[in-house]
Structures are given as structure tokens and as C-alpha cells.
Amino acid sequence: MSNKHVMHILEEVKNGCLSIEDAFLKLKQSPFEDMGFVKIDHHRELRQGTSEVIYGEGKTARQIVEIASAMVKHGQKTIIITRLSSESAEYIGQYHTMYYNESGRIGVIGIFPKANGKGKIVIATGGTSDIPVAEEAAVTAEALGNQVTKLYDVGVAGIHRLFSHMDEIMSANVIIAIAGMEGALASVIGGIADCPVIAVPTSIGYGASFHGLAALLSMLNSCASGISVVNIDNGFGAGYLASMINHR
After folding, report:
1. What residues contact residue 140 under an 8 Å CB cut-off, 6+ apart?
2. 121 vs 146: CA distance, rounded Å
3. What is the CATH number of domain 120-246?
4. DSSP letter assigned to residue 111
5. Numbered ranges of CATH 3.40.50.1970 in the chain
6. Which of 28, 87, 214, 226 has its CA 20 to 30 A from that of 208?
């Protein structure tokens, strides 16, 4: 949508020809910016409350720079880039000031907003090997304005480690449970927590784990209520969903 079109809508509101509600609807339905290799949805935040996120895998570093530059030009203050290689991050850093989390392969251009969610998001992992997925979830949640508490390596192989954090678990507004192998952590947390639990299966495990499929099926078949499940290794999806819940 051009500035001229926006001004026309505002003039219609000013003259009483268009209601504020109808004007807001028109702005929400605004078109995208077509850059040839990408069509950037600059009005996603207006429609959904969160700006568009850049998925880095499969894109060249130059493409990411051009997309991010267009977003900055249109006033986006926080830009999340997921599945970002360290090589691409180094290149992007020549053009934009960016925080990069190498473990989670996620970058944030711009500011981390002040936490304004209703409570805190607790992120728990079964083992240390699950931390990369957890870091992707944590950075996503923090970049979307949430307070995050991390409980790493609290899996069922030594369940007393989890129970030593009952205060954090019971005071959470949302919990993200991340585990590979058989994925039992989500069921255990779901059985003791009084808030929504987002389960994330990871591709960590020996052969019969089938690169996360075993954990995925375990989490989908959990007998604990209040558990939702995202895709294998999808830390971003879990962090995003947790943020939506935490801001309701």
C-alpha cells in the first residue's frame, strides 16, 4: 500500500466517509512489497500482532540483507531470522547490528522489546543435546516480549532434577517441554503443571528414535491433558505459540 493510498484512507476517516473500524480493516488487508525474489508482508503485525519472521535456511546472505533492509525501512524494530548459519550471520553483521545465537542458529536485528507478557515462559529440556532447539525457542520468545526461564538437562533419566524446580514450574504461565529419545518429559510436566504445555520433539536419539519420530508420537499420545505438540525440532514454532498464549 502506497503512502498516497494510506493518506486517502485517513482523509476518508477525517471527512466522515469511512469509519475507524472500516479504515482499520482496509489497512489490515494491505498488499505486500514485491521485491521479485520475495514478497514481504509488512502489515502482518497489524493483522496478527507479530511482524513477519525471516526463515534463513535456503536463502543467500545477500537476500536476507535485502529483506531485512526493506523491513527496517518500513519501521520494523525487531527482525527475527531463524535457521541462520554462522557464515550468513557474519555477512549480515556487516550491514545490520544483530544479536546472533550460534547454538539456536537464530539472529535478531534491532531491539529486544521489554517483556510485556502476562507471566513467564519456562523452557525445559530433557538433555543438553536438546539445548539448540531450546535456544531457538528462548530467543524467539524473548524477541517477542516475554520473560523466559530456562531449565536445561532435567530429563526423566534423573527425574529428581526436574522436581527440584517445582517453584518455576508451578509459577509458569506457559511451559515448553523439549525432548528427544522417547520424549517422556512433556508427559511428566503435563501431569504436574497447571498451565498449557507445548511439547517439542527433537531429532536427538539412537536409531529407533527415527530422527525424532518416536518422541513426536509419544508426545501426541500423552495421557496428560493440556499438552499441544509442534513439529520435530521446531523451537521457533514453540516460542511463537508460547508468546501468543502469554499475551492473551
Report:
1. 80, 82, 106, 235, 236, 238, 239, 240, 243
2. 7
3. 3.40.50.1970
4. P
5. 120-246
6. 226
